[in-house]
Amino acid sequence: MTDYIALPKAEVHIHVEGCFEADDVIRNCQEAGIPLRAPRDRLFEAHDLKSFLEMLDWLCGTFRTREQLAITAYKFARRMAKSGVRYADVIVNPTHWPHWHSNIPGMINAFDAGFAAAEQDGYPPVGLCVSLLRTQSAEDAIELVELLSRIRHPRVVALSIDGNEAAAGRTGPRFAEAFRRAAAAGLRRTVHAGESSGPEGVRDAIELLGADRIDHGVRAIEEPALVDLLAQRRIPLGVCPISNVALGVYPSLAEHPIDALRKAGVPVSINTDDPALLDTTLEASYAACADTFGWNSETIRQLAATSVHASYANPALKAQILADLAVWRA
Ligand code: ADE
Ligand code: ZN
Known about the structure:
The protein is of the alpha/beta class. The protein has a single domain, classed as Metal-dependent hydrolases (TIM Barrel, Alpha-Beta Barrel). The protein is built from 14 helices and eight strands. The protein has helices at residues 22-32, 49-60, 66-82, 104-120, 138-151, 165-168, 172-184, 199-207, 224-233, 241-246, 258-263, 282-293, 297-310, 315-326, and strands at 9-11, 85-92, 126-133, 156-162, 188-193, 213-216, 237-239, 268-270. The chain has an eight-stranded parallel β-sheet with strand order 1-2-3-4-5-6-7-8.
């Protein structure tokens, strides 16, 4: 079977919260005297997006110290290296982390320390996308963006928004001002839409939030004019096929629209979302899709190139990864 670890690529849709190791969470619990939510073999059990997000609140609530965050960041970069990722944009959503609500700069500094130490040790560079939650208020969203604008931390590359659109309803208008201010502060903008919302969520992400990248976006397939818009404007989708099947967006990989979107000219990349919690890897995601859709090595190269173009890596690093990708042989 093709080794997709050696494929030069970026990961552009992945959450810190989705990359915990069970041992670390259990150690956090032992240190703080917190009872486990379930036995070790069911610690990461969830059935849909709602129960998944509730689980994230519990998992993140076990992280109390700066060192615990730095170790998590370090292990994240090490995990990326193991999958052959050359650059990653990672999402972190402060609302999931109760012990850090009142110290978001401290949280960013702690993650930054772990990513910096990992890069020193030869692991890939990581950009941080700080995320709003769909169920937050407009005021809280603006407060976060103002904080990010004030601290201007070099690790922070983008404003993100994630969470459950089915629970929140239509929230594009609510977050438009926060995203406008993020753009004015020079932040990139990546938006979860078209996973727990339909195509209307994707359209709002473009028109109201000024997204330069969309996380998931796959339900755009339900509106042909929107598919054309994504293709014409070259707005990239950070697609996570394994996650979409695991969390019930599609019943099987064969029924997933990634190949139809690709054929319609939409820039799509393959990503993992929450790989540790969903028990997958990026190389396994490429392999499963190649197998299901019969992709050849040129199609795989194109998808990996899209991941690099869509990333927030600096131009020199992008050029280096793309040069290595050009000489990659399956
Ligand atoms: N946070 C972590 N994973 C997520 C997903 N798949 N959708 C929305 N928010 C998330
Ligand atoms: Zn996601």
